Q: What sequence folds into this?
């Protein structure tokens, strides 16, 4: 199995001790504000400084990886198509047998969608997704010699592949930072952290791209997604163990009240 390699840096004890301290030049207001009010008040320049410091902190505690399992760029593309509105866990349960029997674009291009439905029927919208996977495989064989293209424009002509999917595959499989994949977790966390308060994921992506250095775009996406999945959950954010509590205007307590050692996501 070939998860994308982690780039989590080493964590020194000094960094651990400092983890929950407020950054001196980025004090958040004592008076609670909504993310929207904070976003308006903060302004772009300071937000960029906060975002960079926040990313450095996040990098100490949250790995840079997808949770989807795959061995090749094509298998990652199939897994991401299957994961739309579904959990990575459900996709990872289905794909080992699918990839064992149909490991590449050529193999999947040769079957009818109904033949792969039994493999993926535990994933929601499996009929549509089966069609998308087979049509994508056929397009890759016809136009790209069975390989996954490395250009956003080419990727997004494939069925079932929007900008978000293309961002994940380009960034994770090829280290190409074309954009920032904003899923439901990254969107929610971006709002709570007041990095963007827009509701349209495309607009959120554009704003995040302005805040973070291009070389970090894929890592920003992976780390925000993991933070949202395991700590900044939709119903009950676990602020007490959140590594970026000191940067968050939506926090439910002061950083001093949080755990001294934030939770790691590895
Ligand atoms: S401090 Fe709380 S609300 Fe803010 S990012 Fe962390 S878990 Fe989410």
A:
């Amino acid at each position: 199995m070939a998860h994308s390699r982690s780039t989590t840096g080493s964590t020194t004890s000094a960094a651990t001790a400092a983890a929950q301290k407020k950054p001196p030049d980025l004090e958040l207001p004592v008076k609670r504000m909504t993310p929207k009010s904070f976003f308006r008040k903060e302004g772009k320049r300071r937000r960029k400084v906060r975002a960079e410091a926040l990313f450095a902190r996040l990098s100490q505690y949250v790995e840079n990886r997808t949770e989807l399992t795959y061995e090749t760029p094509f298998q990652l593309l199939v897994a991401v198509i299957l994961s739309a509105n579904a959990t990575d866990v459900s996709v990872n349960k289905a794909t080992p047998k699918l990839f064992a029997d149909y490991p590449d674009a050529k193999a999947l291009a040769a079957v009818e969608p109904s033949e792969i439905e039994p493999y993926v029927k535990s994933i929601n919208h499996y009929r549509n997704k089966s069609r998308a996977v087979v049509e994508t495989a056929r397009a890759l064989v016809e136009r790209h010699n069975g390989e996954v293209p490395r250009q956003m424009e080419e990727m997004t002509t494939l069925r079932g592949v929007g900008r978000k999917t293309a961002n994940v595959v380009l960034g994770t499989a090829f280290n190409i930072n074309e954009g920032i994949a904003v899923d439901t977790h990254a969107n929610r966390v971006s709002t709570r952290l007041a990095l963007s308060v827009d509701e349209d994921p495309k607009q959120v992506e554009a704003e995040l791209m302005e805040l973070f250095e291009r070389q970090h775009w894929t890592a920003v996406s992976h780390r925000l997604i993991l933070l949202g999945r395991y700590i900044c959950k939709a119903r009950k954010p676990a602020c007490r163990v959140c590594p970026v509590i000191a940067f968050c205007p939506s926090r439910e307590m002061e950083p001093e009240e949080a755990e001294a050692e934030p939770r790691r996501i590895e």
The domain at 14-65+183-257 is CATH 1.10.1670.10 (Endonuclease Iii, domain 2).
